[in-house]
Design a protein that fits this description.
Length: 200
């Protein structure tokens, strides 16, 4: 970049991640982030600007900058097994089986973006099951894990979180006994209950 006696800012091709060298006519200059002070130049996104108190560069002054830029990167992950299963539930071949979520990685590098995309797949792509039943068994509590065996409903060794309990009473003679309506779930699209405690 060459000065021209009136420009005090110049566009950069990419946002700056780090600067290797920054010189004007071979002399090292200091560079800070936009909004800071005490530097020769400042970088704000893709704009390089000169300190307002410094004299404007002339056409005999050349800025040489070597930096590592931030190139836009999009990470994508999918779970084809869940897509196939959803397609059977929808009843429409090839329809409504893909649900997409777009998220801003907030400055993640490509490795972190890939990890974030995979974490979202692990968190949301596995279908959960809900299970409601009535029992006379006492001692169950919301927030605890219940292991259920109900082969007639296709449930075998299902670990689910109890999310709600409603207590009703029925009379038999002069006595009353409690009946508990239990609602439990593997979780909102998280797979097994252990995924509740996974942080991403």
């Amino acid at each position: 970049m060459i000065g021209n006696s009136y420009a005090s800012s110049w566009p950069l091709a990419l946002p700056v991640d780090s600067i290797t060298t920054f010189q004007v006519n071979g002399q090292d200059k200091t560079v800070g982030l936009g909004g800071s002070s005490g530097f020769d130049f400042y970088i704000n996104g893709t704009v390089l600007s000169q300190d307002p108190a410094a004299p404007l560069l002339t056409d005999e002054q050349v800025i040489t900058i070597t930096y590592v830029g931030k190139k836009p990167y999009t990470a994508m992950r999918e779970n084809t097994d869940s897509q196939a299963l959803l397609a059977t539930y929808d009843g429409v071949p090839g329809g409504f089986s893909v649900y997409a979520m777009v998220e801003d990685g907030g400055g993640c590098d490509n490795v972190a973006a890939d990890a974030l995309a995979q974490a979202r797949i692990d968190q949301y792509s596995i279908l959960s099951r809900d299970w409601e039943f009535t029992t006379m068994r006492s001692g169950l509590a919301v927030g605890t894990i219940l292991t259920s065996f109900a082969p007639e409903y296709g449930l075998t060794d299902m670990d689910a979180l109890i999310t709600a309990i409603t207590t009703d009473y029925f009379m038999h003679g002069a006595l009353s006994s409690p009946m508990y309506d239990i609602q439990c779930s593997e979780g909102p699209a998280i797979g097994t209950w252990t995924r509740l405690f996974i942080t991403t």
